[in-house]
Amino acid sequence: MLAVAEKIRNMEIRGAARIARAAAEALENFAKNYDGTDFIGDLGLACRALYGTRPTAVSLWNAIHSIVHDLEGMENEEARAVVIKRAKEFTERSEMAVERIGEIGAKRIFDGCTILTHCNSSAALATIIRAHKDGKNIEVIATESRPKRQGYITARQLMSEGVRTTLIVDSAVRYFMKEVDLVFVGADAIASNGVVINKIGTSQIALCAHEARVPFYVCAESYKFSPKTLGGEYIKIEERDVKEVVDPADVGNARIRNPVFDATPPEYIDGIITEYGIISPYAAYEIIIHQFGQKIMFEKEWWL
Amino acid sequence: MLAVAEKIRNMEIRGAARIARAAAEALENFAKNYDGTDFIGDLGLACRALYGTRPTAVSLWNAIHSIVHDLEGMENEEARAVVIKRAKEFTERSEMAVERIGEIGAKRIFDGCTILTHCNSSAALATIIRAHKDGKNIEVIATESRPKRQGYITARQLMSEGVRTTLIVDSAVRYFMKEVDLVFVGADAIASNGVVINKIGTSQIALCAHEARVPFYVCAESYKFSPKTLGGEYIKIEERDVKEVVDPADVGNARIRNPVFDATPPEYIDGIITEYGIISPYAAYEIIIHQFGQKIMFEKEWWL
Amino acid sequence: MLAVAEKIRNMEIRGAARIARAAAEALENFAKNYDGTDFIGDLGLACRALYGTRPTAVSLWNAIHSIVHDLEGMENEEARAVVIKRAKEFTERSEMAVERIGEIGAKRIFDGCTILTHCNSSAALATIIRAHKDGKNIEVIATESRPKRQGYITARQLMSEGVRTTLIVDSAVRYFMKEVDLVFVGADAIASNGVVINKIGTSQIALCAHEARVPFYVCAESYKFSPKTLGGEYIKIEERDVKEVVDPADVGNARIRNPVFDATPPEYIDGIITEYGIISPYAAYEIIIHQFGQKIMFEKEWWL
Amino acid sequence: MLAVAEKIRNMEIRGAARIARAAAEALENFAKNYDGTDFIGDLGLACRALYGTRPTAVSLWNAIHSIVHDLEGMENEEARAVVIKRAKEFTERSEMAVERIGEIGAKRIFDGCTILTHCNSSAALATIIRAHKDGKNIEVIATESRPKRQGYITARQLMSEGVRTTLIVDSAVRYFMKEVDLVFVGADAIASNGVVINKIGTSQIALCAHEARVPFYVCAESYKFSPKTLGGEYIKIEERDVKEVVDPADVGNARIRNPVFDATPPEYIDGIITEYGIISPYAAYEIIIHQFGQKIMFEKEWWL
Amino acid sequence: MLAVAEKIRNMEIRGAARIARAAAEALENFAKNYDGTDFIGDLGLACRALYGTRPTAVSLWNAIHSIVHDLEGMENEEARAVVIKRAKEFTERSEMAVERIGEIGAKRIFDGCTILTHCNSSAALATIIRAHKDGKNIEVIATESRPKRQGYITARQLMSEGVRTTLIVDSAVRYFMKEVDLVFVGADAIASNGVVINKIGTSQIALCAHEARVPFYVCAESYKFSPKTLGGEYIKIEERDVKEVVDPADVGNARIRNPVFDATPPEYIDGIITEYGIISPYAAYEIIIHQFGQKIMFEKEWWL
Amino acid sequence: MLAVAEKIRNMEIRGAARIARAAAEALENFAKNYDGTDFIGDLGLACRALYGTRPTAVSLWNAIHSIVHDLEGMENEEARAVVIKRAKEFTERSEMAVERIGEIGAKRIFDGCTILTHCNSSAALATIIRAHKDGKNIEVIATESRPKRQGYITARQLMSEGVRTTLIVDSAVRYFMKEVDLVFVGADAIASNGVVINKIGTSQIALCAHEARVPFYVCAESYKFSPKTLGGEYIKIEERDVKEVVDPADVGNARIRNPVFDATPPEYIDGIITEYGIISPYAAYEIIIHQFGQKIMFEKEWWL
After folding, report:
1. Distance between CA atoms of C14 and A28, rounded to whole angstroms?
2. Interface of chain D toward chain C, CB-CB under 8 angstroms
3. What is residue B295's predicted lDDT score, i.e. its pLDDT?
4. Average pLDDT, chain E
5. Which pLDDT tens digit goes with each residue over C139-188?
């Protein structure tokens, strides 16, 4: 438990999907190995510890909530069993979700097309690789994705799968947009009014795609949708260590700012590919209500 | 001469303004030091050599043309004197131009405003520094400008002048646009219909500024305007060594593409600040005709 | 009953929320005080009388419908009890709705931000005042809102709560938009395709906000959503007494037109803040179906 | 059965609505007249045959699915009865749908307005004729709709109903848009993210209407919504016999291309008028889920 | 002289055209009546006094400059004669300009059209009245133009000329835009990149017209074009007495802001009607160079 | 003379360029063959006759004006010589212009690109054929261009030159826009604010190109620019014989409207290719002033 929490905190485990699954697994293990006397009480402590590692991560909250909701008043043993069961289900659904998204998204990728992707989204890559394996002749343009350059990982993954890939700097997106047929990116979180939070740079790629009438798709498992935004909360955008960008000493001690995500408005998004199908970003409200019900908005979590 | 040509070719001398001035100086020195017997003939060879180092650089062509036009049939000595005189004038006008642009542009920068700039444009920085020296309290956001990261030079220059500067990655432009009051960039070349060629990434910054109703200004000496575009030629956009981006081996041998410039359409530009004043990009035609006359369009240069 | 009807008709009671609550209260009182023998019949007459005072007011229809639907065939005494109960519930939900909207909307208002508001919406002001009470340092720009100048009331309310407020004429909205971080307005009615009907001027404010990428929120209780629009009806926009604008004699007997509301298209609206959470305007259909069911579209009210 | 299939294949029966109803009738007749011993098996064959005539027609798939879903394992006689019952219901609902759409849409058509329509949509014409019969003074501009010139049929139908109609070539849409108050068109199919597939030319009419702020409505029965798009499938756009356009010999043997439909993005559509009311195109997801449930997305039809 | 200066200062004389002509007349009278010994010196004092009354008025600077430029070193008597001659010419050209603008603009007004105008521009009204006198059947929608309500003057002028006029509040512009065929407004000043400065509210009218594809024309004599903007200066937008809006005491002592003008970007302007013909706003540079020459940009006026 | 006039009137001679050249030739022949005694008087009659055949054709007026301006008061013989000389020059310049436009425009056409063209413009085809002859591998998409189907002529011309050509109906432009790299069209006339008048349908093609960020070029000889628009005149758009579209009897006697041209706003035009080079449409004013001087605007032609 603590090990996982620490890895999330220090970003050894990163990315919305990986964090969610790590949390589910940690809770499953916590329940399996529990040998204390106050399971509910200790579970609450564990949840808070986990959650505290990245309180801005929507997928983390969603994973914990999915597994521990409505446990108040339950017997310890029953609660343990429930946690183990739900944690397994969460993990399975999460894996199934990526597979389904791959299957659905791949149908949008047509033979001979060029796809631009940003950063390193497992859901977006799943669709691309699936289309490639279906025998479609495709090309990918991958952005570098400064500061962490996850685009290099993307390029290596795609090349190793045999997908022809071109790497460009982030500034070159608009230059190459005329050669692009489709954009596929992932998501860290999605708000109730359809705004998508994803890796810094996503929103200007969406703007460039919109300007050139290139369809822009977001690949996102349903647990990326944020129920708390329904109740008015913003999804907080972290700023990380500025040395990820450059050592201030190298730029005359100029201030450096390093926000990790940005917000893409729904008007630039042609579809969100979820395990429930391709929806308009404006249907985010339904996806949230479907998963959590309306009451989620004002409810207080028992473990917080 | 050859030394300068070599430095332009190997990019020791880079940037439209620096190239133009180096060429003017090289021609001035060539004429001053000439001790052969066929000045015109040898000058033609020298011009071709210079021009061949960066045939896509509009400022280089303009500098050479300004200095050696209409020399055919002139006596050698007279021609030498003309070249020396014109080269000096070109250099002086070029320096005066930056100063005037600084003076004009600084008036657009108001107290308390935040300016975003891209890459490292001497004309754009001249306006910013001038405004700072005029006592205006300003802030600058400088983009990293991958792949060569000229934004670091910009940050260091501004910090050393005492201008508060924040450095961001290129992907973060849209994220920060809501804090920006003005965008100032330079130009490598300007086409007859108002399209501006500048450092890769400029056009998506312009798009983001336009989307958010932030005024976008281009600082450009008049010799950046391309007469050949009037006759239909495109300004060619070079692609440079891909290792400037990353070693292909590090990205699974993905293809890498590294275009240096991109094209910003005039509809996203609020004004071009030249030594002739602030004009709409749609007035590019007048600036070209004013400098070169209409005949430039189809004329063949004697030295080519 | 008649007194309330008269006050709605002569606009002593005005504003979608106040009208709805006054109608609920009037029906509650009507039922409580009823001493006749044909409650259902007389209730029908009362409903028609109430409704006739402002047949274009969506909130009035919704209030009456919520309270008296499906009473046909019920016993008089049972019906009376039902009416009393539902009227109370409507009033309570209506008050709760404003409170929830305030709570939700306040989370969107961040420290240091400037909010523009138009006319005098209790739901919009609830969010602003709530944010202020939460200790956020905010500023409000209030439009005059000709012809009735409800902006003066808004300014006085906000100033008395201690919120720093600036009043501007309606023509100055675009001029000040660059200083605005958020727009919050109310709604008189919302159509099934997401169009918002609100005080004249709202739609051009939304257009100015959209142009400048400033988020535009509508605060609206769910009973503002019009089920009849689902069936094709337009929301009728009244024109009121021209003397509210100016005496024709003072303008050379020019014709004067005085429409009260205008229609804002959903593409300019970033979110509608309801007691059910923040939704995209495109989710209006769900809100209507959720409240009234699909059959509302073609049903004939028994009391009409 | 075979006769109907043949007529669909050779386009004697054409148009999404007519195809759907012909299929329903064919299945009804098949079931009524069936005298074999393996009804389910033979029904499957019949469905495949019908479906094979126009596998790209969403309405055909929807009609068959609506009538034969979940028959696996049923007794032959029971299945026959179910098919007959559902086929009748489908036909009735389909007729009722057009009537309801007419009723709803007519309310959007105001006295004195000019409506532009394209091609020959029975649902769109139903609204126009209904408004005319309601006594509204209206005018229609009908496009020619090359290559098949269905606009001539539209013009004749409207003129015979007494509706003043003007015919224009397809190229003149933007020219006349300034005289247009409303656009009403039909749909062949609607995707889960709100994209509307309709007669070639529809999308540029929508673009012209959007440019001029003219409301653009699509009239579509709910069985036009494509559940398979939820699962990622594109709606395939057929290209038909090029001689519908011109004999290649008459144009120097130039290649001719003749796509039948195009795709209108939801951002240009103000409302879709269905028998369930006027919805935003972004509510397409709900209409699909409401009709088919979420499982439709991945299910395999038993008869395919 | 002083009387005129005082009237400009206290706004008895207001409006760019009236100020310019009053200044020309004042300088003419000053020269005619001069009986001192240092004409040039005293003229300089007079110019400064005049100019100081409204240093932000472009037309005032232009009028003075047109009349007194290049007088340095001239004999007193010669200078007096020059001033008288130029002042007369300025006045004549100014009157001719309005007439020509009326003549040109009237050709754009077609029979049966509805024109929206804002505030009270003599040049805009000249075109409208001219079209009316040419026998065209037209209608005008005049905005109130808060805070000074110059729309009432406009309405009275037009009604007294027999032009059918409708008065609306400023907030109703977008509501009525669908009935408008053309917008005609005046200008206080025009910048070198085509930005038009005019009465507060003009820019949001332009935005509404642009959104609805309604042509937007600015009527402006050539002396409205600001040569100083070529050199980078902004046109300063005054804020006037807040009591023009409302007494602060009536709005809970809220702050009130009262800017007089706003800036309309050239992209929303279809043409500027000057005495030199109808030009694109992007041709502002030529109009300035044509009138003043390029040197105006950096020159220091002798009298300042 | 009369024969040519008749051919223009009955449209045997059609197209702006052909009409202009036919007029020049007719005037040349008139002058050459003149054997009367009042050359100037008879020339005036001839000009009026010619002009009366198509008074809406800008190129016709420009051709006549270019040849007969300023002849008042000249001797008959001198005037005859002048007319012959100017007519020859006009014809030569007109031919040279198409050649230059071809040469300039061809440089914009890059290897491997697909060009969409509309109707049958000799200047646009000159650029395409020139590029093809320069060895560039290009493809053309030609629209049918209803009602006269000039696209068939275009397709035949291009195919006979060996240019791969695809013909589509006018409605399919937006559908194919994603495969288009460049649009090239001609012009009938160009207004002083940059509006281009060309074959009906041009403006919606421009809109589609703009939506998809595809460069849109107009090929136009300088005599297409209308000096009279500077003075406020609209370019009149003719409506021709409705039977060009369809026999009214075939469409239930619906009204048919058949406008020949439409107006493309300059904001959708990336460049106008003239014999003076590629200019922004906003430079139309300069082209007009350069050719005709400012006085043209109000002058009365002696021969009218």
Report:
1. 57
2. 100, 103-108, 110, 267, 270-271, 273, 276-280, 282-283, 286
3. 79
4. 95
5. 999 999 999 999 999 999 999 999 999 999 999 999 999 999 999 999 99
E158: left (phi over 0), alpha (psi -120 to 50) or beta: alpha
Which among E107, E280, E282 has the least Cβ separation from residue F232?
Answer: E107
pLDDT digit string, tens, across residues D245-292: 999 999 999 999 999 999 999 999 999 999 999 999 999 999 999 888
Q: Is the pLDDT of residue C298 over 80?
A: no
How many contacts does C have with D, using Cβ atoms within 8 A?
A: 58
Cβ contact, residue pair E178, D213, below 8 Å: yes
The pLDDT mean for chain D works out to 95
Could you please report the per-residue DSSP string of E30-80? HHHH--SS-HHHHHHHHHHHHHHH-TT-HHHHHHHHHHHTT-TT--HHHHH
What is each CA distance from D82 to D88, D273, D301, in whole angstroms? 10, 30, 17
Model-level pTM? 0.96
What residues does each domain of chain E span?
A: 2-99, 102-292
Record: contact C251-E155, CB cut-off 8 A: yes
* F61 in Cβ contact with F48 (< 8 Å): no
Q: Is E119 a catalytic residue?
A: yes
Alpha-carbon distances, residue D175 vs A242, D151, F144, F229 (angstroms)? 55, 18, 18, 20
Judged by 3 or more CB pairs under 8 A, whether F touches C is no
Write the residue in B231, B234, B282 that is nearest to F277 by C-beta. Answer: B231
User: Could you tell me the two tokens for E221?
Assistant: 């004599």
Indicate the helix (H) or strand (E) that contains D115: strand D114-117
The chain D residue lying nearest A104, using CA atoms, is: D232
Give the closest of D104, D282, D283 to C232, CB-based: D104
* Closest Cα in chain B to C209: B212
Residue A135, token pair as written in the block: 């025998």
Residue E248 predicted with pLDDT over 90: yes
Element housing D292 (H / E): helix D284-292
Would you place residue C304 in the very low, low, confident or very high pLDDT band (cuts 50, 70, 90)? confident
The C-alpha atoms of residue F205 and residue F201 are separated, in whole angstroms, by 6
E250 included as an active-site residue = no
How many Cβ pairs within 8 Å bridge chains E and F? 58
As beta bridge partners, residue D116 has D141, D183
Answer yes or no: same fold for B2-99 and B102-292: no
Mutate to test the interface with E, among C167, C195, C202, C260 (most CBs of E within 10 A): C167
Under 8 Å CB-to-CB from E251, ≥6 apart: which residues?
C151, C152, C155, C156, C159, C165, C167
CA distance E131 to F202: 30
Return d(Cα B192, Cα F145) in angstroms, integer: 31
Taking contacts as CB-CB distances below 8 angstroms, the residues of chain B near E233 are 107
Question: How far is the alpha carbon of D299 from chain A, nearest alpha carbon, in Å?
Answer: 13
- As beta bridge partners, residue F172 has none
Q: Which residues of D touch E (CB under 8 A)?
A: 177-178, 211-213
Which of C209, C203, C140 shows the shortest CA–CA distance to C168? C140
| Superfamily designation of domain A2-99 | translation initiation factor eif-2b, domain 1 (1.20.120.420)
* pLDDT, tens only, B4-50: 888 988 888 988 999 999 999 999 999 999 999 999 999 999 999 99
Catalytic member of C188, C208, C219, C270: C188
**R_g of chain B, CA atoms, integer Å:** 20
Contacts of A280 in chain C (CB under 8 A): 282
Distance between CA atoms of C49 and D227, rounded to whole angstroms?
A: 47
Chains sharing 3 or more CB pairs under 8 A with chain E: B, C, D, F
Q: Minimal Cα–Cα distance from F242 to chain B, Å?
A: 39
CATH architecture of A102-292: 3-Layer(aba) Sandwich (3.40)
